[in-house]
Hints:
Strand content: 15-25%
Strand order of the largest sheet: 15-19-14-18-16-17
Number of helices: 12
Radius of gyration: 23 Å
Structural class: alpha+beta
Number of strands: 22
Number of domains: 2
CATH superfamily of the largest domain: Dipeptide-binding Protein, Domain 3
CATH topology of the largest domain: Dipeptide-binding Protein, domain 3
Amino acid sequence: xxxxxxxxxxxxxxxxxxxxxxxxxxxxxxxxxxxxxxxxxxxxxxxxxxxxxxxxxxxxxxxxxxxxxxxxxxxxxxxxxxxxxxxxxxxxxxxxxxxxxxxxxxxxxxxxxxxxxxxxxxxxxxxxxxxxxxxxxxxxxxxxxxxxxxxxxxxxxxxxxxxxxxxxxxxxxxxxxxxxxxxxxxxxxxxxxxxxxxxxxxxxxxxxxxxxxxxxxxxxxxxxxxxxxxxxxxxxxxxxxxxxxxxxxxxxxxxxxxxxxxxxxxxxxxxxxxxxxxxxxxxxxxxxxxxxxxxxxxxxxxxxxxxxxxxxxxxxxxxxxxxxxxxxxxxxxxxxxxxxxxxxxxxxxxxxxxxxxxxxxxxxxxxxxxxxxxxxxxxxxxxxxxxxxxxxxxxxxxxxxxxxxxxxxxxxxxxxxxxxxxxxxxxxxxxxxxxxxxxxxxxxxxxxxxxxxxxxxxxxxxxxxxxxxxxxxxxxxxxxxxxxxxxxxxxxxxxxxxxxxxxxxxxxxxxxxxxxxxxx
Length: 520
């Protein structure tokens, strides 16, 4: 089974709470904005009149802490580097599919434990050095080395042998069949870099369409077009990521014409200043950012499935979503976003029904009500969710005591020591349903059948078999009310109407900038 906590030293590596604060109103249901005008599907690049030597300036709230591909861990690290400066054997596309990149193709042995990758011809690093299979071997060994703190280090430790039979072939032997192996290879840590290029914390040489032209720490990173790039040339000459500490400064820069695009809008409150203005485009896509109300399933009263189901039925997920995102995003019925291959709409399970919730509580022995404490790390959006849950659950006779704590306390108390009753947390990863197959994970859900299905899904003979097994997992954890999955955040971008070609969704770790074009 893939590790539910690959390479984690803090929950921020996989359970990243949004780093910026939302500015939504604290009144449940009060945020009702009109639908975006000038919105679309992420306008396609290459429009007539585009300037091939344009500079694209992008606003971001997430500056990388390092350029070391086997370290990092925050969102900005992958957004800047992955697919832009460094590339892997495989790539995760904006619609959640794994496709070839540096690997032109691959063969898999009948038992599923040996992968033979055939590299793309004519690939060079940005300094002109030809890419050889030995470079890939070195990278794959590095991501599982003592140096690495990559989020996928433990998952990729299934690689037992990594060899280069010739300069264009990489052969990897696995300890067991892994249907997720090609997905794991899409991670930043598995992206190929040139060894010995300099201090890896500040220098990276890859095969991507850009080089790092400069990093003014605390301010910006400049990516410069790689004219030696082996693939399709970028539609711009330079991309500048400007980093901001808060959304107000970022939005003001966009309004002032200092930015062409922001990577993610963190609240619908900012949108009215850009709507109905022809110089801006607002685009909404989907994401993998899931807002969860989690229980400690191993302790009373949450070890009683009827209590958990009652809490879910007392929760009006749609009202919470609208309070935070004003008619955007979507409610969830399990841990699976639409871009994961095993998605099914399970929102009808334990749908909002206060009277049924009361009956379930009575059945569980809590006819006179129930009281428990919710630990959470506050932000404007999480505060709205917390207050909304308090109000909604009270209608079913459930009293929750809200206990705001800081990140470090949450990590120690909830994630590491499991010393909690319930918590609110944001989970951002793709394909993280499998964490419910690990009873030691912080919510301590323990269902042997689910654990068996998760294990079998990883060693399944085909992708179709894996998908069917994980659909069973998704349905079972929903029927068990293992958590209260609230909603999926939307991916909203605001851009100058002069630019096009940017990705619509927020479903991968990277923010691919090569297709972005800008009118003259």
